[in-house]
From TrEMBL:
<keyword id="KW-0949">S-adenosyl-L-methionine</keyword>
<dbReference type="InterPro" id="IPR034732">
    <property type="entry name" value="EPHD"/>
</dbReference>
<dbReference type="GO" id="GO:0032259">
    <property type="term" value="P:methylation"/>
</dbReference>
<dbReference type="Pfam" id="PF13832">
    <property type="entry name" value="zf-HC5HC2H_2"/>
</dbReference>
<dbReference type="Pfam" id="PF05964">
    <property type="entry name" value="FYRN"/>
</dbReference>
<dbReference type="GO" id="GO:0003713">
    <property type="term" value="F:transcription coactivator activity"/>
</dbReference>
<dbReference type="InterPro" id="IPR003888">
    <property type="entry name" value="FYrich_N"/>
</dbReference>
<keyword id="KW-0156">Chromatin regulator</keyword>
<keyword id="KW-0863">Zinc-finger</keyword>
<dbReference type="GO" id="GO:0008270">
    <property type="term" value="F:zinc ion binding"/>
</dbReference>
<keyword id="KW-0539">Nucleus</keyword>
<dbReference type="InterPro" id="IPR013083">
    <property type="entry name" value="Znf_RING/FYVE/PHD"/>
</dbReference>
<keyword id="KW-0862">Zinc</keyword>
<keyword id="KW-0677">Repeat</keyword>
<protein>
    <recommendedName>
        <fullName>[histone H3]-lysine(4) N-methyltransferase</fullName>
        <ecNumber>2.1.1.364</ecNumber>
    </recommendedName>
</protein>
<dbReference type="GO" id="GO:0140945">
    <property type="term" value="F:histone H3K4 monomethyltransferase activity"/>
</dbReference>
<keyword id="KW-0805">Transcription regulation</keyword>
Length: 400
């Protein structure tokens, strides 16, 4: 017995010998199968028909046709490196679809990730420059001139002149060196040879008064008295400014009186802290700067005589604009020809004077004056010393 295969309605049916035997018994009662197209596709490989054929086994081979998949949701665009893997479905195999869930960061920066790595930070890392200025809280104190000078000195970028030599002149009243503050002791005035006094130290002394021409009178008298008086504030000698209250013995240096908070008045009087009125006063003086011409009245003839008697000296003596360098000398045989009814002409006399230039209208120069001897008579020599020109020497037999 052999198996028989026949085709009916595009289906291959296999009959075995056992089945053919059964069918032969019921051949007369079974009508032929209707030839009609299949309305429904068999869901499984094995089917049983209920058209009076209960014992018929039918083997149906699956059709090799492409199945149309249902429409899917719109695809999400991913970079090429993150494309979803696709698996083709086979007829009798399970269809598997792998979907990669993208990160949120990758979606926002998808355009930046597509760029080459070398251009990712272009213009952001090495070209972008920002300045952040931090201002500290609180009040800002600008540097003073001394701090700026010290900073420039450390840098060494500026050229500065040599420092001015220290002024070792001392005031005979307050014993402080150099010129004082304008609103304080003020400048130094020459009292005598190597003797100096501050302007306000002398002006506010009890005995001293000022003339209309600006001369200070009785300065030497105040100095002699101050050598015996002790200051109530610093307990040093030289105090000359006393309290004007009757029978008050308090006396101070001018600088010590300011420190002790004494009260000064416009009529050149002073009251100590024990006797000054409380509060402010209409006639109180709080500013001590003196810009007018003030000088110490002194006997210049006696001062010059003291210089001649001292002989050699290490200092410079100046009267007005005339600076003495050497006084000179006269021998007995020269006395007849080297003098007049008003003056002496010692040989070797030398002095210099700063006066207006003969070449420029608004410039001063130095005139060096000296006396020499020629043919038993005095010879007066003037040398004009001016920067940028050769020295000009003028001579004559008379001073005029």
């Amino acid at each position: 017995m052999k198996d028989i295969v026949f085709c009916s309605n595009n289906c291959f049916v296999l009959y075995s010998a056992a089945v053919q035997a059964k069918n032969s018994e019921n051949k007369e009662s079974v009508p032929p199968l209707p030839q009609s197209p299949m309305k429904e596709r068999p869901p499984k490989a094995f089917h049983q028909y209920s058209n009076n054929i209960s014992t018929l086994d039918v083997h149906c081979l699956p059709q090799l046709q492409e199945k149309v998949s249902p429409p899917s949701s719109p695809p999400i665009m991913f970079p090429p490196a993150f494309e979803a893997a696709k698996v083709e479905a086979k007829p009798d195999e399970l269809k598997v679809t792998v979907k990669l869930k993208p990160r949120l960061k990758a979606i926002h920066s998808s355009l930046e990730d597509c760029r080459p790595p070398s251009k990712k930070w272009k213009g952001m890392k090495w070209k972008k420059w920002s300045i952040q200025i931090v201002i500290p809280k609180g009040s800002f104190k600008p540097p003073c001139e001394e701090e700026i000078d010290e900073f420039l000195k450390k840098l060494g970028t500026t050229l500065k002149p040599d420092p001015v030599p220290k002024d070792y002149r001392k005031c005979c009243f307050c014993h402080e060196e150099g010129d004082g503050l304008t609103d304080g002791p003020a400048r130094l005035l020459n009292l005598d040879l190597d003797l100096w006094v501050h302007l306000n130290c002398a002006l506010w002394s009890t005995e001293v008064y000022e003339t209309q021409a600006g001369a200070l009178i009785n300065v030497e008298l105040a100095l002699r008295r101050g050598l015996q008086m002790k200051c109530m504030f610093c307990h040093k000698m030289g105090a000359t400014s006393g309290c004007h209250r009757l029978r008050c013995t308090n006396i101070y240096h001018f600088t010590c009186a300011i420190k002790a908070q004494c009260m000064f008045f416009k009529d050149k009087t002073m009251l100590c802290p024990m006797h000054k009125p409380k509060g402010t006063h209409e006639q109180e003086l709080s500013y001590f700067a003196v810009f007018r011409r003030v000088y110490v009245q002194r006997d210049e003839v006696r001062q010059i005589a003291s210089i001649v008697q001292r002989g050699e000296r290490d200092h410079t003596f100046r009267v007005g604009s005339l600076i003495f360098h050497a006084v000179g000398q006269l021998l007995p045989q020269q006395m007849q020809a080297f003098h007049s009814s008003k003056a002496l002409f010692p040989v070797g006399y030398e002095a210099s004077r700063l006066y207006w230039s003969m070449r420029y209208a608004n410039r001063r120069c130095r005139y060096l004056c000296s006396i020499e001897e020629k043919d038993g008579l005095p010879l007066f020599v003037i040398k004009v010393v001016e920067q940028g020109h050769e020295d000009l020497v003028l001579t004559d037999t008379t001073p005029k």
